[in-house]
Design brief:
The chain has about 750 residues and is α/β, with parallel strands linked by helices. About 45% of the residues lie in helices and about 10% in strands. It is built from 23 helices and 10 strands. It has an 8-stranded mixed β-sheet with strand order 1-4-6-5-7-8-9-10, with helices on both faces. It has a two-stranded antiparallel sheet with strand order 2-3. Strand 7, helix 14 and strand 8 form a beta-alpha-beta unit. It is found in: Cell membrane; Cytoplasm, Cytosol; Lipid droplet; Membrane, Caveola.
Length: about 750
C-alpha cells in the first residue's frame, strides 16, 4: 500500500471512530477515544507531505540503484510502520467497538502510545527536511558552522523518548526481535534501579535482569524509567550493563548453546617490539613497537578460535602465550591427528562502543564462523575506554594484527589470505588498523568485512542518526557518552542531574575518574604547549631513548612539524573538502606518503594522532553557503505553525555538543580521511542495517570509496537492529544476516561456498 492510500485509509477510519465514540455520551473514556482518533487524523495528514518530500529525494543519497538505502529512506519506512500499526488498530476498533469483549482501556492505552510515537516521528520528518535544506548536495552528514549543529542537537535531545520504550518498543523491527528487546528493556531498568540504590554496586549478578516485574506489567512506567536512565546515567553504567553477558552464568549458557570447537584459547602477547618486512621491499623492515599510549607498555590479549586442531596450535611456542581461564582453558583437547594449516586467517575486532565487551561476548558467533569458514579466528581484546581512550585500542589492535601476520603458522594458518572483520566499533578499528598498516608499509589485509561500522565519531546530525530517538540499543545520549569516553573527554554529569542515582561509592568512583582525567588532560595540554613552543623556536630536541612512554604514536606525533599531515590541515578537515568523486589532482589533499627510510626501525611511526587546538577556532569557521538568518532562527523554525512535539520530562540533558578536534582525526573518524589514505584500503565489504542510527556512516563511507574507484560492496539488511551478530541465534532473520557476513568473508578469503 502506497503512502497516500495508507494515510487516506487511516484518516477515514479515524473519522468513523471519532463519530462513533463522540455519540457515546459524555464519559471520560469516550472523550479520550474521540480525542485520540482526532489526534491520529491530524498527525497523519500533517506527516504525509513531509514524508512525500523525503521520499522524492531519497534516491539521490543511495550508493547505487541496487542499494536503495540511506537515513531518509529509513525514516520514511519507520513512519510507515507506525502508520500501518495505527491502521491495523483502527480497523480492529471499528470492527469490535460494540462487542462486550472489547478491552477499552487496553486499546485506548495502545492508541495513545502510538499517537505519541507518530507525533514524534512527524517532528523527526521536519528535522530531516531541515537537514535537506542545510546540508551540502548529496551529503548525509551536516557540515559547516558547528554552532548550527549544536543548536540542532540541543533542540533534538529535548524531544520526548519514553513513548518509544513502552508499548511501542521495537515496533519498527521484525516481530521476532521485539520479545528480546522487551526483555532487554526490563533488564535495563531493573539494572538501573540496582545501580541507583547501590545495592550491589556496579558488579551485579544475573538476577538483576529478572527482578523487574512492575516494569514488565506497566509499559508506561518502563518507558519513563528507560528515558530517565539514558538521560542521566554515565558511561560507567552502560559499560557495566553491556558487560552483563560476560558474567559466568550467562557466558556459560551462551557457550553451551554455541558450536563446539576444538580450540578456544586466550593468549597474552608480551609487549616486545618485533620487525616486519615492508611490502615495497621485503629486504627492508620496520619496527612494530608495543602499545604505549596512556598506560605504557602492556600485554595484548587475544583469543584463538579454531573448529579443528591445526598444525602449530598445540606447539610449545604458542602454549607459552596461553593465559589460563580456569575450566575454559581445557577446551583444547588433543586429537590423534592434526588438520593441516588453513590457507586463510580471520583477525576479528569486537564491538561495544569502545567501552564494553570482550571476545567472550562475541565468542558464540565466532565459533560458528570458525566452523563455516574452516579457518582459525584471532579475536583481539583491546583495552576499553574511558580508562584507555584513543589511541590505545588502535595501537593494541595494530600490534596484534601485525603479530598475527608474522606468527600465522602458530595460529594454524599459512597466511595466504587474511581478512580483517569487525562489528560496530570493531568495524571502525578494522578500517583504521588497515590505514595504519599502509602507513607503516607492512602488509594490509586482503579485505575488510565491517558490520554496521561507525565511521564518523564527530557529534553531528544525519537522517539515520535521528533514529536514535527511538532506538533502545543506540540512544543518542549513549552514543555521545561512548564517543566522549573514547576521545578521552568523558562526559561530566549535568549539574541538575540526580547525583544520588550513583550512590556514595558511585560518586567516589566518578569523582576519582574525573580527577584522573583532569590530571591526564592537564599533563597532555602542558606537553602539547611545550612542544608547540619548541617548534616555534625551531630547535626541538629528539626524544630520549630512555623515555619509552614518549615514543607512543600518540605522543611522538606531537613532535612532528606541520606538513602534509600537520595539525592545521587535519583539524579543519571536512567532508566537502574531500569530495565524493575521484580527483586526479591530489595536491590539495593531505597526503600520507611514508617512505621506507621514514619507516625504518629508528622511527616506527610519524603518524599524527593528536590534533592541536587553537582555542576552538574551528568552531567559528562557517561556510559561506550557510545563511546567518537560518542559524539565528534555530531549528524550531523547522516546525509548521501549530505543531508542537512532546518534550522530555526528565529535564535538560548535558552532552558534548561541540566536537573535540581529536574526533576529526582520520584514525578516529575514517570517513574524514583524505583520499590518499582511503586509496590504500583493501577491498571493503560492509553489511549495514536499514534501521540502524549508524546506517549513514556505512552509506557515506561506501560512496567515498566508490568515488575513488576503490572496490567496495554495501549490503543492507532490513528490519534488524544494530548488533544483530550478537543475536545470530535468535531468529531466522538474524541468522540470515549473520550468514551474509560469513559470505562476505568467504569472498575475501577466496574460499569455496558452503555445500548445498
Amino acid at each position: 500500500m502506497d503512502l497516500h492510500t495508507m494515510t487516506q485509509s487511516l484518516v477515514t477510519l479515524a473519522e468513523d471512530n471519532m463519530a462513533f465514540f463522540s455519540s457515546q455520551g459524555p464519559g471520560e473514556t469516550a472523550r479520550r477515544l474521540t480525542g485520540v482518533f482526532a489526534g491520529i487524523r491530524e498527525q497523519a495528514l500533517g506527516l504525509e507531505p513531509a514524508l512525500g518530500r523525503l521520499l522524492s529525494v531519497a534516491h539521490l543519497f543511495d550508493l547505487d540503484t541496487e542499494t536503495p538505502a540511506n537515513g531518509y529512506r529509513s525514516l520514511v519506512h519507520t513512519a510507515r510502520c507506525c502508520l500501518a500499526h495505527l491502521l491495523h488498530k483502527s480497523r480492529y476498533v471499528a470492527s469490535n467497538r460494540r462487542s462486550i469483549f472489547f478491552r477499552t482501556s487496553h486499546n485506548l492505552a495502545e492508541l495513545e502510545a502510538y499517537l505519541a510515537a507518530l507525533t514524534q516521528l512527524r517532528a523527526l520528518a521536519y528535522y530531516a527536511q531541515r537537514l535537506l535544506t542545510t546540508n551540502q548536495p548529496g551529503r548525509l552528514f551536516f557540515e559547516g558552522d558547528e554552532r548550527v549543529i549544536a543548536d540542532f542537537l540541543r533542540e533534538y535531545v529535548t524531544l520526548h523518548k519514553g513513548c518509544f520504550y513502552g508499548r511501542c518498543l521495537g515496533f519498527q523491527f521484525t516481530p521476532a526481535i521485539r520479545p528480546f528487546l522487551q526483555t532487554i528493556s526490563i533488564g535495563l531498568v531493573s539494572f538501573g534501579e540496582h545501580y541507583k540504590r547501590n545495592e550491589t554496586g556496579i558488579s551485579v549478578t544475573a538476577s538483576s535482569l529478572f527482578t523487574g516485574g512492575r516494569f514488565a506489567i506497566d509499559p508506561e512506567l518502563r518507558g519513563a524509567e528507560f528515558e530517565r536512565i539514558i538521560q542521566n546515567l554515565d558511561v560507567h553504567f552502560w559499560k557495566a550493563f553491556w558487560n552483563i553477558t560476560e558474567i559466568q552464568v550467562l557466558s556459560s549458557l551462551a557457550n553451551m548453546a554455541s558450536t563446539t570447537v576444538r580450540v578456544s584459547r586466550l593468549l597474552s602477547l608480551p609487549p616486545v617490539a618485533f620487525e616486519m618486512p615492508l611490502t615495497s621491499d621485503p629486504e627492508l623492515t620496520v619496527t612494530i613497537s608495543p602499545p604505549l599510549a596512556h598506560t605504557g607498555p602492556g600485554p595484548v590479549l587475544v583469543r584463538l578460535i579454531s573448529y579443528d586442531l591445526r598444525e602449530g596450535q598445540d606447539s610449545k611456542e604458542l602454549s607459552s602465550f596461553v593465559r589460563s581461564e580456569g575450566p575454559r582453558s581445557l577446551e583444547l583437547r588433543l586429537r590423534p591427528q592434526q588438520a593441516p594449516r588453513s590457507r586463510a586467517l580471520v583477525v576479528h575486532i569486537h564491538g561495544g562502543g569502545f567501552v564494553a565487551q570482550t571476545s567472550k561476548s562475541h565468542e558464540p558467533y565466532l565459533k560458528s564462523w570458525a566452523q563455516e569458514l574452516g579457518a582459525p579466528i584471532l579475536s583481539i581484546d583491546y583495552s576499553l575506554a574511558p580508562e584507555a581512550p584513543f589511541p590505545r585500542a588502535l595501537e593494541e589492535c595494530f600490534y596484534a594484527y601485525c603479530w598475527a601476520v608474522k606468527h600465522c603458522a602458530l595460529l594454524g594458518s599459512t597466511g595466504e589470505r587474511i581478512c580483517l572483520a569487525g562489528d560496530s566499533a570493531g568495524g571502525n578499528l578494522c578500517f583504521t588498523v588497515s590505514l595504519r598498516a599502509a602507513a607503516y608499509g607492512v602488509r594490509v589485509p586482503d579485505g575488510i568485512m565491517a558490520a554496521y561500522p561507525a565511521t564518523m565519531l564527530q557529534s553531528t546530525a544525519s537522517p539515520s542518526r535521528l533514529l536514535s530517538l527511538m532506538d533502545p540499543l543506540l540512544p543518542l545520549s549513549v552514543l555521545s557518552k561512548c564517543v566522549s569516553a573514547y576521545a578521552g573527554a568523558e562526559t561530566e554529569d549535568h549539574p541538575d542531574s540526580d547525583q544520588k542515582a550513583l550512590g556514595v561509592m558511585g560518586l567516589v568512583q566518578r569523582d576519582t575518574a574525573l580527577l584522573l582525567r583532569d590530571l591526564r588532560l592537564g599533563a597532555s595540554s602542558w606537553l602539547n604547549s611545550f612542544l608547540e613552543l619548541g617548534g616555534q623556536k625551531s630547535h626541538l630536541k629528539s626524544v630520549s631513548k630512555t623515555e619509552p612512554m614518549r615514543r607512543s604514536v600518540s605522543e611522538a606525533a606531537l613532535t612532528q612539524p606541520e606538513g602534509p599531515l600537520g595539525t592545521n590541515s587535519l583539524k579543519s578537515l571536512k567532508l566537502h573538502d574531500l569530495g565524493l568523486r575521484n580527483s586526479s589532482d591530489t595536491t590539495d589533499t593531505p597526503e600520507l606518503s611514508l617512505s621506507a627510510e621514514t619507516l625504518g626501525p629508528s622511527a616506527p611511526s610519524t603518524i599524527n594522532f593528536l590534533l592541536g587546538s587553537e582555542d576552538g577556532s574551528e568552531m567559528s569557521e562557517a561556510p559561506e553557503e550557510l545563511n546567518n538568518k537560518d542559524r539565528v532562527r534555530g531549528v524550531g523554525a523547522a516546525f509548521p505553525e501549530g505543531f508542537h512535539p512532546r518534550r522530555c520530562s526528565q529535564g535538560a540533558m548535558w552532552m558534548p555538543l561541540y566536537s573535540a578536534p581529536i574526533v576529526k582525526n582520520p584514525f578516529m573518524s575514517p570517513l574524514l580521511a583524505p583520499d590518499s589514505m582511503l586509496q590504500t584500503l583493501p577491498p571493503v565489504h560492509i553489511v549495514a542495517c536499514a534501521l540502524d542510527p549508524m546506517l549513514d556512516d556505512s552509506v557515506m563511507f561506501a560512496r567515498r570509496l566508490r568515488g575513488l574507484g576503490q572496490p567496495v560492496t554495501l549490503r543492507v539488511v532490513e528490519d534488524l537492529p544494530h548488533g544483530f551478530l550478537s543475536l545470530a541465534a535468535l531468529c531466522r532473520e538474524t541468522r540470515q544476516a549473520a550468514a551474509l557476513c560469513v559470505e562476505r568473508i568467504r569472498l575475501i578469503l577466496n574460499l569455496p561456498g558452503p555445500p548445498v
